[in-house]
Design goal:
The structure holds 6 protein chains of 6 kinds. Chain B is mainly alpha-helical. Chain B contains 6 helices and 3 strands; from the N terminus they run H-H-H-H-E-H-E-E-H. Chain B has a 3-stranded antiparallel beta sheet with strand order 1-3-2. Classes of the chains: A mainly alpha, B mainly alpha, C mainly alpha, D mainly alpha, E mainly alpha, F mainly alpha. The structure holds sodium ion (2 copies).
């Protein structure tokens, strides 16, 4: 049973990691690509970490919960990274696909220096 | 006097608890030695780094916070699948968007956590914060109804966060 | 079962690495490349944890943790460079 | 030890002491230095005198002390007839010159300096002639070159004095080096540097394969010193020296040192055709050339200079004949030349002094102005011309005799020797006549700067004495010169001397005929002087040795400049290419110098897909760094990829500690690069040298191939590392399960100590380097876009502050477990440093510095102190430095835990890493003028001095 | 338990840390502490030389771990000698630096100064190849700081080149040490020697290659052709006190060759016994020629002295390359001489440069140096010593080396090169001396410009500094080494001979290193 | 795997060498960094490659990787970091003082040699005046 759960988690994790990279690879502009890694990888890495947690908790006599910490780190840092990368992209006025919808008072955002 | 001493020694009790837990997590243990060592560190580190925390963090409603965390986790899982489908599908059909979210939440930590949550839940990334810290620029991978999305964010994330982190 | 799945997972991660790296090479601009580097870091975390599982050793956990920390620092440093030039000002 | 067993070194060294006393005396009274010098000379003579009797009794005195036994350099002195003869000349004429110089020197000349130089020179000369050890002799030999340099350049404000002294030094000093080589080889053959042994080993030397090289090298020393052709030209230029110097150096000493050496080595080196040809050839050429040139000099001292050259040639030729009788003649002429030439130089000095010029075309008819001097000059010049009843005549007769004998003994071709010798004698007569007639007669002086008059009495006394000697020897040779000549000859030949007669009259023989012919023709030649001078002065092909000498030197210098600048271009790349190229050659030649297979037979690990892919990415990223290196930021991103995958390699191959370190260092390096890049051009301009690019590609590919071969050569082989010991002793001996960490803090703690010193030095060095450096902060990026005005995005600020305690916790975690699991002080230090850096990055310098009130100097210092103290404590306990101790304690509640001194050491490591890393990055951050301004505005100067 | 071998390393380390903390107490305190420490080191090192004369290898097991597992420090006559030379040179350089306020021209001079000694002494004493690398890096990084101390454009550029070249050198060092470890499986020099001696024929190639690579690394430090390009600019443009101290830097490279290669590839190394020697000899001769050219081509006195240092190290390499105990002994004698005299000469060059005002040390007619007789005399003294003219120690050293070369196959080549190079140097030094001291602008022209007007203050200021007595003392102290070396040639050559013989006695070295036992009763 | 790692080391070294031979200081720094990666991997590999056998004493394990090269590499990494940091800062200083980031000898125009000019007649000399002045202050 555990084995199956582990296998599933590992596969899920690897799959979502891959999806993140596929997104990064094939999405048409930077802002859209940003969604791939920052999201799919959180679950991707998350699932693999859970697998690891389970595996080591059961293969050794003690619980192995420290993997939570990696997740915690990622949950704090990944959005900050994304935020800063997006901010930088906005600042250097990187091109976006033409069909990007714009809603709200956006003209000031186009000027990178607010 | 005594209270003053405690606030100096324990500037951030929540942080102390979190760090203590983290220490135990890191060491994968509940051995007595580590409990003691973790406690020492959990007191010492906030004490030494208190200068880096300009404002007090006061969690008003722990239960709300807990419920919020569960919701976010759930949303992450669900949205991950949606986004996966979007990514793997025809990207030409995607309707990306930039939109503004007017912020009601005012504490810097609250704003940051909201931005974080938006970025963590798949499909949206918070890209910028206005200079007056009143508006958040969000990019969405695929939205049909932008006002709906804004409303969703405000209701589902901003409201609980606002409740938890209010300036004291 | 895990043993059968692991090669597949490694393969998937390999493809991820490859795709991220291709993006890094293709760019076309710096934000894209920084994003690709960030993704490579995330992929690497998964890879390291998976290796730990594969070898049945918990000794690789810190490496994963540190990749997470350092990847973050690298990304914000690069981004800040694009924003301000002066990263410590 | 009695005085008589150590008087020789005292004699030789006394003048050196005098060289210190004389200037000291001069500082009290100018003239006192002259008297001190004279007194020293007399004292030296007095100390020598007691030994003379033994020498005249045919004994050879040797006094020696061990100096450097390893090479047979002994502090050994020798007094035999030859040495005694020269010592007397050196001291005797030296004394006269000192007296003369006391009157000669101008009041503005520093007498102390003059006598110091002169005495140094005198000491060196005495050293040469008194040395028993031939290496010691070379020491003194070169010292004569040095001190003569000082003497000739005494009037340093004259360009010709500088030039002349330089020429003398270059020629004689260079010859001295050749002599040194010759002497070394000679000593090596003989097995001793002691003259007694060398003199006894003539047969051995002459039959040795190295005889000719040795001969040539020693003769180079001789010829340069005694101004033999083609090295003669320095001597006339040395006339720029004050005349007492010329009188001393060119009569009895400097140039005679070469002759002395010929005499000294005569028993060892002579008697071969090589000797005869080289020595004889040089002597004959010099004799002729000098005599010819002397006639045409209008400068009084120039005439004497060339005449000296000629007479030295004569003596050399005599030694070249190689017979015993020739040697007798040579020794005899040495004495005679010394006396008459010294007096002539002194006369020239008086004339120069009194008239203010040395130009014989202007100096005429001095007889009536300087009658006494004129008489002395005429006698001495007559001696020089070889007029009977003067000493020059006697030795010249012997010389003619030997020339004739040589012609008779040797091949029929040698008939030209007597002929040429006679020609030279003709010129000698002519120039001597000129010295007398042109100066003291020949009408009235022309346009003299001064009106001449007799010099002080005491200035002429030295000349008087010398001229009296000329006469005495010339008239009563048997009663004057015979004894010393006999012992000198005996010492020179090292056998019983041949029978010779010192009589004035040997009947009407061929030599006398030659003398008569020479005198007659000499007068004739002199009579035709005007035409000859006109012819000579208008000759176009003047061979000015000075020009040749200078151009040769200049050529060497040009060559030096060309060679030096061709190799040292000041280009770093050039230097690096040489190093890398050499490394390739070194590795390659190492492999091919021994015959061993390149690869071994160790079993290799199969490749898996992910590794292949990772390696592929690593390789491409590395290559792309090169390809994209001109876009600098991009290259930094690529380096980031390389670093990440290098860490993954460490993870893969069982090195978690390395992976952790590499990851941390990697990020800090990237931050460093970014901090620097801010001030640098964002792109590297293309280099348009295709040739260099392809050269560099070749070099890099070769180095890559070389490294790969080296790596494979090792990896395909098995080995027996010492690491088994570490694995076995890590727990029982070091108290830790993480062997890598135990090696770092325990087994090889000294390495780690050095390493943290390196890091501390980097921090401190960078701090020092950046003091006062302010760089302009560009207001826009490379594309002209102004920077974002949001310098510290709030979201980043808030969340990184949240991370700060977390990261510190991780650092502590990594630190504490390091002894047993991957981690340790280094990595923990780097994590803590990164945690701090992130704060700086997110919140800025001012904000963070205000909250981090710790001077990083202090952190570094504490770290070093703790690490060092840990080691010192073990010393205090009687164990070697850095010996660790650990123990397990059991406390209530806490349970059992380990206490290890290595942990304290690791704390030191941790602190140094944190301190140095933060200091480096923060100092860089403070570099911009904007940051500077901010700091000043806030009056916040901590950490910056 | 005697800690003798450790103190030369520990003393400067402790002093360095204390001086760092003394930063708060101001530069005077740092000066005092530094002087105290260096003087202490001089006393200590002389004591060590005495101790070493017993001829035993004093082996110190740092961390109490037996060789080859732990790091050993080995005090023998050679290392004691190197430590002693270093401390004496350092004392003079320090006095000069203080007298001329060099230390005040930037931060951390005194810390860097102590730590470079730490690195140097560590390099001299260690018996471990990787530890040697570490100490090399210590002394290099400290040397970077010192080299750049005070700043200035040319100094910065020279420093940049120096640093990069040495970084490349460090990389090569690691390649070499790595490969050696990969085959031999050890890092201890003595143990390496043992393992090379019993190396299977099949493994020889890698070791030969790695050995030559390592030789190259040392050769960079030793400034052997074609690797010396870092030297001239670095020595020319740094401050005098640092340049003087750097006189030991090249010797570290030579020392490392003697110690590491001499031991590992000694007589017992089979096919590899001394296989590197022809390289040293040949390249040493080329270096000597190049140095002679450089001396002649130099444009200023400091550059000339830099090339003289190159020449001296080349001569030393020739001595080492002759590969006999006798030649090595000669080389060691020459090493003492050349290090101390070159150090003094850098100081003297600086004094001359300061005294000549705006003419500095350039080879052109300029103002007379204050105290021209004394300074000129010292210049002549130094020139005589450096060019190897009698009666000073340079000559003795050269003769010792040449004498040792006479039975070598290449003896005539060696004689020619050494003497021709010596000749060129004599010519060059005579010309420089003549230019600097003879061809001076007369005093009455100094303060007046061509049209008879009194010069501006700036011009008068540009006419040079007066003599500084204390700095003069430092120079004289170093120069006194030369006559001392001549006068006491017998005991000194006896010492160098003994040191050289000890150096060639690999069995003794290996035996003492490998057999020294750690103290028992470690952690209970 | 050995071939692969050797290839990686070779490429890193070759890339490093090429960049180190560039005329500007920034690529040189990158080159030295790459070379440092190369040599660190090399030194590490000299302990032979092992998978899943970290040198952490464990009752379950019997075979370990060679810990010594790992310790050496750790030291080497840190030292290289210190050195690189110093170099980067020095490069900045040089850039600030020399006005460009050339490392070749060419840019200081005033110290071009008067080609083939004998030093005796030389009146102008290229030795930097600022250097002396810097020392004097
Ligand atoms: Na006349
Ligand atoms: Na800055």
């Amino acid at each position: 049973m555990l084995d199956w759960i582990l296998a599933a988690l590992v596969l899920i994790g690897a799959f979502f990691t891959l999806v993140g990279s596929i997104g990064l690879y094939k999405l048409p502009d930077f802002y859209m690509r940003l969604h791939g890694p920052t999201k799919a990888t959180t679950l991707g890495v998350g699932a693999i970490l859970i697998a690891s947690m389970l595996y080591f908790s059961f293969s050794t006599d003690a619980a192995s919960l420290h993997e939570i910490l990696v997740t915690l780190f990622l949950f704090i840092t990944a959005p900050v990274s994304a935020h800063l990368m997006a901010k930088a992209a906005l600042h250097v006025n990187i091109q976006q696909v033409a069909r990007t919808q714009r809603y709200g008072d956006l003209h000031q955002w186009d000027k990178p220096s607010e | 006097m005594l209270k003053n001493f405690y606030t100096r020694l324990l500037p951030h009790p929540v942080l102390t608890v979190i760090l203590w837990l983290i220490w135990l997590l890191l060491n994968n243990t509940v051995a007595a030695g580590h409990i003691l060592l973790g406690l020492i560190l959990a007191i010492l580190i906030p004490f030494l780094t208190s200068a880096f925390w300009p404002e007090k963090v006061r969690i008003q409603s722990p239960l709300t916070l807990f419920r919020f965390l569960v919701i976010v986790l759930w949303d992450i899982v669900i949205a991950n699948m949606i986004v996966a489908k979007l990514i793997l599908g025809r990207n030409d059909d995607l309707k990306p968007a930039f939109f503004d979210v007017e912020l009601d939440i005012q504490t810097p930590l609250g704003v940051s956590l909201l931005a974080n949550t938006i970025s963590l839940t798949p499909g949206t990334v918070s890209c910028d914060l206005s200079a007056d810290h009143r508006r958040l620029l969000v990019h969405a991978l695929h939205v049909e109804d932008i006002p709906g999305a804004i409303k969703h964010i405000k209701q589902r994330y901003e409201t609980p966060l606002k409740k938890v982190f209010t300036a004291c | 079962m895990l043993e059968t799945v692991l090669p597949i997972a490694f393969a998937l991660l390999g493809i991820s690495l490859f795709l991220s790296f291709v993006r890094l090479l293709k760019g076309p601009d710096l934000p894209n490349r920084i994003l690709a580097l960030d993704t490579l870091y995330i992929n690497a975390i998964a890879l390291v944890v998976l290796l730990g599982l594969h070898l049945g050793s918990a000794l690789y956990f810190e490496a994963a943790l540190l990749i997470a920390v350092m990847g973050f620092v690298g990304t914000i440093a690069l981004s800040k460079y694009l924003l301000r030039g002066d990263i410590i000002e | 030890m009695t005085f008589l067993s150590s008087n020789l070194p005292i004699v030789a060294l006394l003048p050196f002491a005098g060289a210190i006393v004389a200037p000291w005396a001069a500082s009290i009274n100018r003239l006192a230095s002259a008297w001190a010098a004279a007194a020293i000379t007399l004292l030296a003579f007095a100390l020598l005198a007691p030994s003379m009797a033994m020498v005249f009794a045919g004994e050879t005195l040797v006094q020696s002390w061990s100096w450097i036994p390893a090479i047979g350099l002994e502090f050994a002195f020798r007094l035999d007839g030859l040495a005694l003869l020269f010592a007397i000349l050196i001291l005797g004429i030296g004394l006269l010159v000192i007296i003369y110089a006391r009157y000669y020197l101008y009041t503005k000349d520093s007498m102390g300096r003059f006598f110091a130089y002169l005495l140094t020179f005198m000491g060196s000369m005495l050293g040469i002639v008194l040395s028993e050890n031939i290496l010691l002799m070379v020491v003194f030999w070169e010292m004569t070159s040095l001190s003569s340099f000082l003497l000739i350049s005494y009037w340093q404000h004259h360009a010709d004095a500088r030039e002349g002294s330089m020429m003398a030094l270059v020629i004689t000093g260079g010859g001295g080096l050749a002599l040194l080589a010759g002497v070394l080889m000679l000593g090596n053959i003989v097995g001793s540097y002691n003259l007694s042994d060398v003199l006894a080993a003539g047969e051995l030397v002459r039959s040795h394969v190295l005889y000719l090289p040795i001969l040539i090298l020693i003769l180079l020393g001789v010829f340069t010193k005694s101004a033999q052709f083609p090295f003669h030209f320095w001597l006339p230029h040395a006339m720029a020296a004050p005349t007492p110097v010329s009188a001393y150096l060119h009569s009895a000493t400097m140039v005679k040192a070469g002759i002395f050496l010929l005499a000294r080595f005569f028993p060892v080196l002579s008697g071969t055709p090589e000797w005869s040809w080289i020595v004889g050839g040089a002597g004959l050429t010099t004799l002729l050339l000098g005599a010819y040139m002397a006639l045409f000099q209008h400068d009084l001292k120039g005439l004497l200079a060339y005449s000296t050259i000629s007479h030295l040639g004569l003596i050399t030729l005599l030694f070249g004949f190689g017979t015993k009788m020739a040697a007798v003649a040579a020794i005899f002429h040495i004495i005679n030349h010394a006396t008459f030439k010294a007096s002539l130089f002194m006369v020239a000095g008086i004339i120069d002094h009194e008239t203010g010029t040395r130009d014989m075309r202007r100096i005429n008819g001095l007889l009536k102005y300087l009658p006494h001097t004129a008489v002395l000059a005429m006698i001495a010049a007559a001696a020089m011309a070889g007029v009977p009843l003067l000493n020059g005549f006697l030795s010249k007769e012997m010389f003619f005799d030997q020339a004739l004998l040589a012609a008779a003994d040797a091949s029929p071709l040698m008939w030209f020797v007597p002929l040429l010798v006679t020609v030279a004698a003709v010129f000698a007569v002519a120039y001597s006549l000129r010295f007398i007639h042109d100066v003291f007669f020949n009408g009235e002086p022309i346009d003299l700067p001064k009106t001449p008059g007799e010099p002080p009495r005491f200035m002429k006394i030295p000349i008087d004495l010398l001229v009296i000697t000329c006469l005495a020897v010339g008239i009563f040779p048997a009663f004057t010169i015979a004894p010393i000549l006999a012992v000198a000859v005996a010492a020179t030949l090292q056998t019983s001397p041949p029978q010779y007669s010192l009589a004035i009259w040997h009947g009407f023989n061929l030599p006398l005929m030659m003398s008569i012919v020479a005198l007659a023709l000499g007068v004739v030649v002199y009579m035709f002087r005007r035409g000859l001078f006109a012819w000579y002065d208008h000759r176009v092909d003047h061979l000015d040795a000075r020009i040749i000498f200078n151009s040769v030197l200049e050529r060497i210098e040009q060559l030096s400049i060309v060679v030096t600048r061709a190799f040292d271009k000041g280009s770093l790349q050039h230097a690096l290419a040489w190093i890398i190229g050499s490394a390739f050659v070194a590795g390659l030649s190492g492999f091919i110098s021994v015959s061993a297979p390149l690869l071994g037979h160790r079993e290799l690990i199969p490749v898996d897909g992910v590794s292949l892919l990772a390696a592929f990415i690593l390789i491409i990223a590395s290559i792309m760094t090169v390809v994209l290196h001109r876009q600098r930021l991009l290259a930094v991103v690529m380096i980031g990829v390389v670093g990440l995958f290098a860490s993954l390699v460490f993870v893969k191959f069982s090195a978690p500690d390395l992976a952790l370190t590499q990851l941390s260092v990697e990020i800090v390096t990237i931050i460093l690069l970014l901090l620097a890049l801010y001030y640098l051009p964002q792109t590297t301009p293309a280099e348009n040298a295709r040739l260099r690019t392809s050269r560099d590609i070749v070099i890099s590919v070769l180095s890559g191939v070389g490294v790969m071969i080296l790596a494979m050569a090792v990896l395909t082989r098995d080995y027996m590392p010492i690491s088994e010991f570490f694995l076995a002793n890590s727990v029982p001996g070091g108290g830790g399960t993480n062997v890598v960490n135990v090696i770092l803090v325990d087994f090889r703690g000294t390495d780690t100590l050095g390493e943290i010193v390196v890091l501390a030095l980097a921090g401190l060095g960078i701090f020092a380097l950046l003091q006062g450096l302010k760089l302009h902060a560009p207001g826009q990026d490379a594309s002209g876009l102004p920077w974002s005005r949001d310098n510290h995005p709030q979201i980043m600020q808030i969340l990184t502050r949240l991370l700060f305690p977390l990261m510190l916790m991780v650092a502590v975690f990594i630190f504490i477990r390091g002894h047993n699991l991957p981690g340790g002080g280094f990595i923990a230090g780097l994590i803590a440093a990164v945690a701090l850096i992130v704060q700086y990055l997110a919140n800025g310098l001012l904000w963070t510095d205000e909250r981090l009130r710790v001077d990083m100097h202090w952190v570094i210092g504490c770290g070093l102190l703790i690490a060092t103290l840990t080691g010192l404590v073990s010393m205090g306990l009687g164990y070697p430095f850095l010996t660790t101790a650990f123990t397990y304690l059991t406390w209530p509640v806490v349970g059992k835990f380990e206490v290890a001194s290595a942990i304290a050491f690791d704390v030191g490591v941790f602190l140094v890493v944190v301190g140095a890393t933060v200091m480096i990055l923060v100092q860089l951050g403070k570099l911009s003028d904007v940051s500077h301004q901010q700091y000043q505005q806030h009056g916040f100067q901590r950490g910056a001095k | 338990m005697t800690h003798l071998a450790a103190w030369p390393v520990l003393l400067p380390l402790i002093a360095g840390v204390i001086v760092l903390f003394a930063r708060a107490g101001g530069v005077q305190l740092q000066r005092m502490l530094n002087l105290l420490a260096v003087s202490g080191l001089v006393v200590l090192s002389i004591a060590l030389v005495k101790v070493s004369q017993a001829g035993t290898n004093e082996v110190y097991l740092a961390g109490n771990w037996q060789a080859p597992f732990g790091i050993v420090l080995v005090l023998d006559q050679l290392s004691a000698l190197m430590v002693a030379i270093t401390s004496m040179l350092a004392l003079a350089a320090l006095v000069y630096a203080i007298a001329t306020d060099t230390d005040k021209k930037g931060a951390h001079f005194h810390v860097l100064f102590q730590l470079i000694i730490f690195g140097l002494n560590g390099a001299f004493l260690t018996g471990d190849v990787f530890n040697l690398f570490v100490f090399f890096e210590v002394l290099l990084l400290a040397s970077y700081g010192l080299l750049l101390h005070g700043g200035g454009r040319l100094r910065t550029r020279a420093g940049l080149h120096y640093v990069i070249i040495n970084l490349l050198g460090a990389t090569l060092f690691l390649f070499a040490v790595g490969a050696l470890y990969g085959v031999l499986g050890t890092l201890n020099i003595a143990d390496m020697a043992l393992r090379v001696a019993s190396l299977p024929q099949g493994e020889v190639g890698v070791v030969a290659a790695a050995g030559l690579l390592l030789l190259l690394v040392f050769a960079i430090k030793a400034a052997m052709f074609p690797l010396y390009l870092w030297l001239p600019a670095a020595y020319t443009h740094t401050s005098a006190a640092v340049a003087a101290l750097f006189a030991i830097m090249t010797k570290v490279g030579v020392y490392a060759i003697i110690r590491v290669h001499g031991t590992v590839f000694g007589a017992d190394a089979g096919v590899l016994a001394g296989y590197y020697m022809p390289w040293i000899l040949g390249l040493g001769l080329i270096t000597l020629m190049m140095a002679a050219f450089g001396v002649m081509a130099a444009r200023g006195l400091r550059e000339q002295v830099a090339y003289l240092v190159l020449a001296s190290v080349a001569t030393l390499l020739v001595a080492v390359g002759l590969n006999t105990p006798m030649a090595l002994s000669a080389g060691l004698y020459y090493l003492i001489h050349s290090t101390l005299i070159a150090g003094g000469m850098f100081l003297l060059a600086d004094m001359i440069s300061r005294g000549r005002g705006r003419f500095e040390d350039r080879f052109e007619s300029g103002y007379a140096v204050p105290g021209i007789i004394l300074v000129g005399g010292m210049f002549m003294f130094a020139a005589v010593a450096m060019t190897g003219m009698p009666p000073l120690s340079g000559f003795i050293g050269k003769v010792l080396i040449l004498n040792a070369s006479l039975d070598h196959l290449w003896s005539s080549l060696i004689l020619s090169v050494v003497l021709v190079a010596g000749f060129m140097m004599i010519v060059s030094m005579a010309r420089s001396g003549s230019l600097l001291f003879y061809q001076v602008i007369p005093a009455n022209e100094v303060n007046h410009s061509a049209n008879g007007k009194v010069g501006t203050t700036a011009e008068i200021n540009a006419t040079g500094e007066p003599l500084n007595r204390i700095s003069m003392l430092a120079v004289i102290a170093l120069f006194m080494a030369s006559p001392m070396l001549v006068l006491f040639a017998q005991p000194i050559t006896a010492f160098t001979e003994s040191a050289a013989r000890q150096q060639y006695d690999n069995k003794g070295y290996i035996e003492s290193v490998m057999s020294t036992q750690p103290l028992q009763e470690r952690s209970e | 795997m050995e071939w692969l790692i050797s290839l990686v080391i070779a490429v890193l070294t070759a890339s490093g060498v090429y960049l180190t031979l560039r005329a500007r200081v920034f690529p040189v720094v990158l080159g030295l960094t790459l070379m440092a990666y190369g040599v660190n991997l090399f030194l590490f590999a000299m302990g032979r490659l092992t998978i899943g056998q970290p040198a952490i004493i464990d009752s379950a394990a019997t075979v370990y990787s060679d810990p010594l090269p790992q310790a050496l590499v750790l030291t080497a990494i840190v030292i290289a970091f210190g050195m690189t940091a110093f170099l980067i800062v020095l490069a900045l200083k040089a850039c600030g003082e020399l006005g460009n980031d050339h490392v070749d000898g060419l840019p200081l125009a005033e110290d071009k040699l008067p080609a083939g000019k004998s030093r005796v007649g030389e009146t102008h000399n290229p030795i930097d005046k600022s250097q002396r002045q810097a020392d004097r202050q």
